[in-house]
Amino acid sequence: MKKVLVLGASGATGQQVVKALLNKNIEVIAVVRPASAFEHSFQKRPNYNQVNADILSMDETDLCHHLKECDVVVSCLGHNLTFKGIFGQPRLLVTDVIKKVAKILSSLKLDQKVKVILMNTSGNPNRDIPEKPPLSQRFVVALLRLLVPPHVDNEKAADFLRTTVGQENPYMEWSIVRPDGLINEAEVSDYDVHYSPISNVIFNAGTVSRINVADFMSRLAIDKALWQKWKGQMPVIYNSDK
User: Fold this and answer.
1) How does pLDDT run across 147-160, given as a tens digit for each residue?
2) Model pTM score
3) Are strands 48-52 and 27-32 parallel, antiparallel or unpaired?
């Protein structure tokens, strides 16, 4: 493979994705917000390239240049857990960036489809199946949809890939990874991946470590058999002790 473009590389899970890819000897282009002042030992690695830019306002010509070099895009973008991050602009950060990437890939018309791996949330049901969450979960998620803009962003980003990009796009294919309750752990451990949540994600949520999510996403990027299983799907991931 060529390179992997990681968006949201300075976030808690994004850093783990970068590390997992580098440890698999994959060349990484990491897009980092200039304001984050991100400094990491990754910068000493020969297969690590850092781009300091606001991905949403990045000139399309510059993003086009990076996408030409990559055959995988991993998005770990999210909203900061502050009042401004949750309720301020941009409210559709993830959705707008995914649309921007898709637009450029369509214009490039590359010979090989680019994989897009999007980190999302288990609270966003897969409407392709369709899933039927418990009533209590549907009620709380409806409130989140009204009151918490980042949840709407997650839904719209996933819906764009499902319905606009679809399953037969000539230039890109996708997988939407839905971790349940994220926690921090130091090492990769056993984890399970399911087509749908195995419990109520609000009142009986499981947990999964960020490092396990990163391991799964990095494997999706390079493992052809694993990609064939989960492309066009919305896998839910849990630590195995769930």
Assistant:
1) 777 889 999 999 99
2) 0.92
3) parallel
